[in-house]
């Protein structure tokens, strides 16, 4: 029998609109096949992450995630790719109502880490899936609490100089050397890494992705 390639059939893969190796590894844990759908050189991906005045962190991360999903959908259509669901995630760290994005440099990373040290903060990861018909499914939000131990500035400086914090929200990666500073977490470990697997699996099932 001929294969059913209609948008409402089961889909053997998903487009992942993320350059993050961690998200790619986590998606592979679910045995989900994926193809990358990354921004073109002419796209200003960073502009989508700009904060709005007075914006709450949960609103921010959901808004940015949906905007990235819509940009990815436009990319798919313009490129003439075959129909399949698109998965997008965005992670932010928040403390005292402030949004901690990616540090600009080592000094900025040290400032962020010093702010987190000895305290609790929240890690929010938003998920958005656009199904193969082009419909945006209701986005999901994973919320976790992380407690950093008090740490001497010299230790934070050494960690920042390792280069690991650069490119990461809140200036740390829980799966790397930053684990030495983390006393406990309450929530989703995979969500803190950048792709909460429980919510991801639920959305992909709704989008009829095979795994």
Automatic annotation (TrEMBL):
SUPFAM superfamilies from the UniProt entry: ITPase-like (SSF52972)
Subcellular location: Cytoplasm
InterPro entries named among the record's database cross-references: ITPase-like_fam, Maf-like
UniProt GO molecular function: dTTP diphosphatase activity; UTP diphosphatase activity
Active site (UniProt): 90 (proton acceptor)
Keyword match Cytoplasm: yes
Keyword vocabulary terms for this entry: Cytoplasm, Hydrolase, Nucleotide metabolism
GO CC annotations, alphabetized: cytoplasm
EC class of the enzyme, as a word: hydrolase
Names of the cofactor(s): a divalent metal cation
GO biological process, any: nucleotide metabolic process
Reaction(s) catalysed (UniProt annotation): dTTP + H2O = dTMP + diphosphate + H(+); UTP + H2O = UMP + diphosphate + H(+)
Stored Pfam families: Maf
Site keyed Important for substrate specificity: positions: 22, 91, 175
EC number: 3.6.1.9
Job of this protein: Nucleoside triphosphate pyrophosphatase that hydrolyzes dTTP and UTP. May have a dual role in cell division arrest and in preventing the incorporation of modified nucleotides into cellular nucleic acids.
Cross-referenced PANTHER family: BIFUNCTIONAL DTTP/UTP PYROPHOSPHATASE/METHYLTRANSFERASE PROTEIN-RELATED (PTHR43213), BIFUNCTIONAL DTTP_UTP PYROPHOSPHATASE_METHYLTRANSFERASE PROTEIN-RELATED (PTHR43213:SF5)
Family the UniProt entry places it in: Belongs to the Maf family. YhdE subfamily.
Protein name per Swiss-Prot or TrEMBL: dTTP/UTP pyrophosphatase
Annotated organism of origin: Trinickia violacea
């Amino acid at each position: 029998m001929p294969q059913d390639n209609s948008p409402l059939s089961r889909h053997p893969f998903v487009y992942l609109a993320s350059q993050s190796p961690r998200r790619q590894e986590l998606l592979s844990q679910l045995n989900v096949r994926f193809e990358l759908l990354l921004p073109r050189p002419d796209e200003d991906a960073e502009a989508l992450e700009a904060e709005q005045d007075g914006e709450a962190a949960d609103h921010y991360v959901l808004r940015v995630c949906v905007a990235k999903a819509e940009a990815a959908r436009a990319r798919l259509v313009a490129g003439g790719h075959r129909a399949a669901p698109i998965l997008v995630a965005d992670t932010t760290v928040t403390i005292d109502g402030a949004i901690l994005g990616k540090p600009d440099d080592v000094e900025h990373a040290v400032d962020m880490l010093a702010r987190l040290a000895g305290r609790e903060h929240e890690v929010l990861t938003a998920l958005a899936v656009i199904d193969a018909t082009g419909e945006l499914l209701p986005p999901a939000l994973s919320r976790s609490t992380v407690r950093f131990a008090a740490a001497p500035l010299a230790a934070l400086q050494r960690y920042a100089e390792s280069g690991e914090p650069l490119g990461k929200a809140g200036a740390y990666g829980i799966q790397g050397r930053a684990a030495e500073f983390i006393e406990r977490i309450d929530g989703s470990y995979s969500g803190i890494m950048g792709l909460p697997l429980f919510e991801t699996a639920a959305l992909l099932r709704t989008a009829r992705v095979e795994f």
